[in-house]
């Protein structure tokens, strides 16, 4: 199988993105032909930091890129001056550049010049400092690509299990208002569509409850019977194998999760905590519902260790592997 050309966006250069790319580079070629969209100077510094014997190739277009195990093509993705950015320090310049890298990669992929995008982490406060008020990667991707419905998944191919989130970057007090029959059904459908591309079989989907003990007959809330169950019943009418609502503290237990290829979580931490405990650095962020392939590392910018050369590259390697799998199944 021909390895797909994937664009690796560098994310916030004040974080660990550059050193993760530098450390992972030789291992990315097992699945893909990677090209970095980012800042050449940041990557040169990262290559020196981690000691990876790779030659950096600065390119003006993808046509010039010649990715090799010892050659890293870097397409400059911003006109912003990043010379003053320091590792681990919040920066409007770095936040704005991370946005620029992503937009350049999206547009190239939409044009058919690349098979997909793999993103390194950006910093939401950095985005806001640069005047970009969208919450993060997922929302920027959905807006730029015009996706009507989308979902952020965490996927671990070693389990294998994917989790889709009905609400994402919302304050917990606002979560219930985002959980409607339609939004739950949308996420069930997105899992139905993407899971066969990851697992090779029809999707088996479990749907989590919102409230403790799945509401316990209405004692702790009625969203389970009023909102979530109607979505599951609608999914059944469409021939989707979905069950629930399952109590959130039970659905991820070993004897339950093996029944599913995917789980619909109602909010960010309900899915993220479970998947990060189960998968750790193996977890990959996948955006379902986009017209392009996008995966990401499942960790943040880690300002506390940025510049120390100790960041773990495992999630980036897994993200490239999953992006290549999705690109091959399009």
Please characterize this protein's 3D structure.
The protein is α/β, with parallel strands linked by helices and 330 residues long. It is 38% helix and 18% strand. It folds into 2 domains: 188 residues, Isopropylmalate Dehydrogenase, CATH 3.40.718; 138 residues, Isopropylmalate Dehydrogenase (3-Layer(aba) Sandwich). It has 12 helices and 12 strands. It is globular. Strands 3-4-2-1-5-12-11-6-7-10-8-9 form a 12-stranded mixed sheet, sandwiched between helices. α1 packs across α2, α3 runs parallel beside α5 and α7 crosses α8.
CATH topology assignment of the largest domain: Isopropylmalate Dehydrogenase
Identify the overall geometry.
globular
Give helix and strand order, one letter per element, not per position. EHEHEEHEHHEEHHEHEHHEHEEH
**Helical region count?**
12
| Assembly classification | single chain
Alpha-carbon distance between the two ends:
14 Å
Unreliable sequence segments: none
Portion in strands:
15-25%
Strand order of the largest sheet: 3-4-2-1-5-12-11-6-7-10-8-9
Structural class comes to alpha/beta
């Amino acid at each position: 199988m021909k390895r797909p050309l994937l664009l690796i966006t560098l994310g916030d250069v004040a974080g660990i993105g550059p050193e993760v790319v530098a450390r992972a580079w030789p291992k990315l070629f097992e699945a893909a032909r990677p090209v970095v969209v980012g800042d050449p100077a940041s990557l040169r510094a990262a290559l020196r930091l981690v000691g990876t014997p790779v030659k950096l190739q600065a390119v003006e277009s993808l046509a010039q890129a010649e990715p090799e195990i010892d050659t890293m093509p870097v397409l400059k993705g911003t006109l912003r001056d990043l010379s003053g950015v320091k590792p681990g320090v919040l920066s409007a310049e770095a936040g704005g550049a991370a946005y620029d890298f992503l937009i350049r990669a999206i547009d190239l992929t939409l044009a058919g010049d690349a098979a997909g995008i793999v993103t390194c982490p950006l910093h939401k406060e950095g985005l806001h400092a640069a005047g970009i008020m969208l919450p993060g990667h997922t929302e920027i991707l959905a807006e730029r690509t015009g996706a009507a419905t989308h979902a952020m998944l965490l996927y671990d191919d070693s389990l294998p299990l994917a989790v889709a989130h009905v609400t994402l970057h919302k304050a917990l007090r606002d979560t219930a208002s985002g959980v409607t029959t339609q939004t739950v059904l949308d996420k069930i459908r997105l899992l139905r569509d993407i899971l066969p591309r990851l697992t090779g079989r029809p999707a088996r989907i479990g749907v989590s409850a919102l409230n403790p003990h799945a509401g316990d007959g209405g004692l702790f809330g009625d969203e389970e019977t009023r909102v979530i169950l109607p979505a599951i019943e609608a999914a059944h009418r469409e021939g989707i194998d979905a069950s629930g609502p399952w109590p959130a503290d039970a659905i991820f237990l070993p004897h339950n999760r093996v029944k599913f290829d995917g789980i619909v979580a109602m909010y960010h931490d309900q899915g993220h905590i479970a998947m990060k405990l189960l998968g750790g650095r193996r977890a990959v962020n996948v955006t379902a519902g986009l017209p392009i392939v996008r995966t990401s590392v499942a960790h943040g910018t880690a300002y506390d260790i940025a510049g120390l050369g100790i960041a773990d590259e495992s999630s980036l390697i897994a993200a490239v592997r999953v992006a290549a799998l999705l690109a091959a199944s399009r």
